[in-house]
User: Which sequence fits this backbone?
């Protein structure tokens, strides 16, 4: 999918771009593994060491899944028929966790989905854009799936910090000697940590990020060491590596076994980060990190927890904290808290990145996006999203004040996002890779069955809290759908009421207006029709500049556009030229910088002697046109709260002239 990012009223997001204007690149086979290391832009890095990228990936990519041992096995055992006291319950639960990690993470994401990349980038919106390009036109189904996946990611962005930090701080309740004394302070401490985490986002995370990798690596090695230490409590736990114990456990629990899958899934939450963060580190470091560090450490810890419960059934109530030796309790507690903060930071940063993509693709209104690093383009801060996530986190903790209650709400958002990834991948293997129908079915159907099983089991938790992420997701889907639909209607109405640019030029030749020196740049989403600001300038000021540039900013269906393809100039007449500036959906538009590139193409701009004309529309709701009245009002609210186009496109404020008009939708 590609979208215009600059309607005449300055609102962000717009109608879809004609797919014919984008040259699809259709390889006959799936792309290679791309073992070359990549930087934050998704480009190959020659100087960066593989080890450095590997450690960085450990810190950012695996933080979420690395906190799952704090609560995953505990929740699964608690929901079994025996409450975790039976041997089969322990063996079966550990077996299900192990095979979930193998099938969902290793096979689906690491082996398969990481091959489905959009110019090196992953994630739901990247996948959606790639699928739209593969189809060759805008597919409503693919678009809706992408919107749902993005909404579920935002819900996950609120749930992950809440459940991760709270589960770590709850370790205070089991602290040797002072657990009962500190228990009343668990919730206030967790809330304080979370508020502090969100407050520091505006300062950027570059300095903290350098410590993420080493700290997270120490955390995983600690998990492995604790696991190895306790495996010898009952070495028979190694039987759990056989899948038949998991199958026997599910059969023994009947329908309850299906419900249990929702708790088992907690062990793989964070797997989607492997795919989403692929462009930041490259496939090879992520794959190596998972196969040689993360997976072994996680499994050793789960095996150790299982062995502990087999030897001491009472430990089933909180197996992770029970496995820590008393003399190491406080260091591990501090390390666990740091690990959950790092996991939360990764999700928050991911939400910022997703917002940038959504704005560029026209799914959300233009919003204020700040660069927090002059060196790394990926270091951004989105104030509105940061505040919304903080409010969401505090709401969730108020509604579900323990990690066990939050766990009931957690899985449905992640399973929903994973299900969307599998569904969109179908269009890639069929339309882009040109796989035959039987091969495509064999490739996708097993993942769909597993995803549906996990998603269905988590839906059964709606009374226990799964309603919360579903409600959040539904609200976000409504916002994105309203914004895209409203923008499409507004663009269509504007085009219907507008005069073709070529017709206007012919009229001006017949009746030349008064000319004024200088260059005027008219920003518009549709470069084929006369911009509203140009029409108003002629109507009210009765003047025309010596040089007039019709500027349109387009968002392509790829992550980034090379500088050599950034601008495209088309002379229309002696007085008019059309300028198309293209950006990828992971880039931030900068109009003055793009105009600087025009010097190489013969069009010279002095930014301080150029006037930028923007058309500002005032929208009036109508019950007789387009969307329902409530949706019209929501669209108007979103438009009024969109970021100022002058700031968003980095145009010098003193050079901007805005002209308004009223439009009914």
Assistant:
């Amino acid at each position: 999918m590609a979208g215009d990012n600059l309607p005449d009223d300055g609102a962000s997001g717009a109608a879809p771009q004609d797919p014919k204007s984008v040259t699809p690149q259709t390889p006959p086979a799936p792309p290679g593994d791309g073992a070359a290391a990549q930087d934050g832009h998704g480009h190959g890095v020659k100087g960066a060491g593989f080890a450095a990228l590997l450690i960085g990936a450990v810190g950012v990519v695996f933080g979420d899944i690395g906190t799952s041992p704090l609560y995953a096995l505990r929740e699964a055992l608690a929901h079994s028929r025996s409450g975790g006291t039976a041997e089969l319950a322990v063996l079966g639960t550990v077996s299900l966790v192990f095979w979930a990690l193998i099938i969902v993470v290793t096979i689906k994401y690491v082996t398969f989905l990481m091959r489905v990349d959009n110019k090196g980038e992953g994630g739901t919106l990247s996948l959606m854009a790639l699928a739209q390009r593969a189809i060759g036109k805008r597919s409503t189904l693919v678009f809706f799936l992408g919107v749902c996946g993005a909404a579920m990611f935002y819900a996950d962005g609120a749930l992950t910090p809440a459940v991760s930090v709270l589960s770590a701080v709850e370790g205070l309740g089991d602290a040797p000697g002072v657990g009962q004394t500190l228990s009343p302070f668990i919730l206030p401490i967790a809330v304080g940590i979370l508020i502090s985490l969100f407050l520091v986002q505006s300062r950027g995370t570059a300095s903290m990020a350098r410590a993420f990798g080493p700290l997270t690596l120490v955390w995983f090695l600690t998990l492995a060491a604790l696991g190895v230490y306790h495996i010898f409590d009952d070495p028979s736990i190694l039987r759990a590596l056989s899948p038949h114990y998991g199958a026997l456990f599910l059969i023994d629990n009947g329908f309850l076994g299906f419900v249990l899958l929702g708790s088992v899934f907690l062990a793989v939450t964070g797997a989607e980060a492997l795919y989403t963060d692929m462009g930041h580190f490259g496939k090879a470091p992520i794959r190596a990190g998972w196969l040689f560090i993360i997976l072994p450490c996680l499994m050793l810890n789960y095996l150790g927890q299982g062995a502990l419960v087999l030897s001491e059934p009472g430990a089933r109530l909180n197996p992770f904290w029970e496995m820590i030796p008393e003399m190491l309790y406080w260091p591990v507690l501090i390390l666990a808290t740091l690990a959950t903060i790092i996991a939360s930071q990764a999700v928050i940063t991911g939400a910022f990145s997703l917002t940038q993509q959504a704005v560029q693709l026209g799914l959300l209104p233009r919003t204020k996006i700040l660069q927090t690093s002059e060196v790394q383009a990926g270091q951004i801060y989105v104030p509105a999203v940061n505040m919304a996530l903080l409010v969401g986190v505090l709401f969730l903790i108020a509604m579900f004040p323990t990690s066990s209650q939050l766990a009931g709400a957690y899985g449905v958002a992640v399973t929903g996002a994973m299900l969307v990834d599998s569904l969109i991948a179908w269009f890639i293997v069929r339309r882009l890779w040109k796989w035959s129908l039987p091969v495509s079915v064999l490739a996708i159907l097993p993942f769909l069955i597993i995803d549906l099983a996990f998603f269905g089991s988590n839906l059964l938790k709606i009374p226990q809290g799964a309603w919360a992420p579903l409600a959040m997701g539904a609200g976000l889907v409504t916002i994105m759908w309203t914004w895209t639909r409203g923008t499409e209607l507004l663009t269509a109405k504007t085009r219907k009421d507008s005069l073709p640019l070529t017709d206007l030029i012919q009229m001006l030749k017949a009746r030349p207006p008064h000319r004024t020196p200088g260059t005027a740049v008219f920003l518009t989403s549709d470069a084929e029709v006369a911009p509203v600001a140009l029409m108003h300038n002629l109507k009210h000021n009765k003047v025309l500049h010596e040089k007039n540039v019709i500027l349109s900013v387009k968002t392509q269906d790829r992550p980034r556009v090379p500088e050599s393809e950034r601008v495209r100039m088309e002379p229309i007449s002696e007085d008019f030229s059309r300028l198309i500036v293209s950006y990828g959906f992971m880039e931030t538009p900068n109009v003055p910088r793009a105009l600087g590139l025009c010097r190489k193409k013969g069009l010279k701009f002095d930014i301080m002697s150029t006037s930028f004309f923007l058309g500002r529309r005032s929208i009036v709701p109508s019950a007789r046109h387009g969307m329902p009245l409530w949706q019209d009002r929501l669209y108007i609210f979103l438009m009024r709260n969109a970021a100022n186009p002058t700031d968003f496109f980095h145009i010098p404020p003193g050079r901007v002239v805005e002209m308004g008009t009223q439009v009914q939708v």
User: Anything to note?
Assistant: The CA atoms of residues 390 and 405 lie 19 Å apart. Confidence is low (pLDDT under 50) at residues 1-48.
